[in-house]
Amino acid sequence: MSDYKTYQSFSSPVTPTPPSSIPVVASQEEQSLHPNIQNFDSYRYPSPPTIAYTIPELTRRKLPFWALATLSVLLLISVGTGAWLTYYAGFELPAQADAMATATIQAATTTAKTQATQTAQSHINATATVSTQATAQVQQTATALQGIYNQATSGVPTFQSPLAAQDSANWEIYNAQGGGGCFFADGALHASVQRQNYYVPCFALASNFADMVFEVEMTITSGDEGGIIFRGDNTASKFYYFRVGRDGIAALYATQSNNESRNLFYDRVDTIKKGINQTNIVTIIARASTISLYINKQYVGQTQDTTYTSGQIGLLASDLTNATDVAYTNARVWQL
């Protein structure tokens, strides 16, 4: 066993008054000719002389009673008809017009409401169709990727180990500065870290894989997170690592040095068994630039990245807020 420096983890309006009428005043000459005339408005000249004219008397004939009665009846009928016409014209016709206008407005309103409802329903139907199609596409993709997992892990693994003791992969065994490290105990390979915001990697020094399936059973016995490393270079501290936390968070990173990393995937995953002493099966499928992620044999995400194409596999423990120990068993690799 040798001392080995730990690696730091990477996290976060006045109406005018009309003029008064002006009185017309008679002149002195007019007053001398007509002393009884005072001020007047409608004329200014004397009246013409009166001519005597005798109107002959007209002999008036009295109408018989029946004629008077007939005229009275006709007069009453005329007045009544006029009143009825006035009522009809003044009340009946406007009422008909009101009824017609009301019917027209109601018809227009009904048509507008119907058209608006049809338009809204069309939008709803279109949205529902798009949502249904998108959901169906996601489900089809997940089903296809689940099928890839089932197929890829159906054959005989290229490498497998119970991780109860050292094997052909030549796992790193060392004491980390500040406590923890990589060691075999109780039939498992442990990765342990006791410095906050640091992580400890345990590389399989004799391994080298490009396209592959890498799977391992992981149990957090204390602390925060564990995970798997792939396509790594332990000497340059460059690799991908898939972190799984006891809080149900999973994340994929590409490290570039001891103090730099790039997040490729981050999500809360329902399939993770949360808490301490819960065993989760963690799997990655790396094929060219495509990296697919699985937990407990269920697809959880996928990303594309070309940073690394091949390298070592490994295991790790990460201390975010608590000292962490993770036990690993049953590692398997299928080369693709």
Summarize this structure briefly.
By secondary structure, the protein is α+β, with helices and mostly antiparallel strands.
Layout of SSEs?
Blueprint: E1 2-4, E2 7-8, H1 28-33, H2 65-152, E3 159-161, E4 174-176, E5 180-185, E6 188-193, E7 198-203, E8 212-222, E9 225-233, E10 238-245, E11 249-257, E12 260-268, E13 279-287, E14 290-295, E15 298-304, E16 312-319, E17 324-335
Parallel strand pairs: 1-4
Antiparallel strand pairs: 2-7, 3-17, 4-5, 5-6, 6-17, 7-16, 8-13, 8-17, 9-10, 9-16, 10-11, 11-12, 13-14, 14-15
Characteristic terms for this protein:
elongated, 336 residues, 3-keto-alpha-glucoside-1,2-lyase/3-keto-2-hydroxy-glucal hydratase domain-containing protein, transmembrane helix, Jelly Rolls, alpha+beta, 2 helices, membrane, 17 strands, seven-stranded antiparallel beta sheet, 2 domains, ten-stranded mixed beta sheet
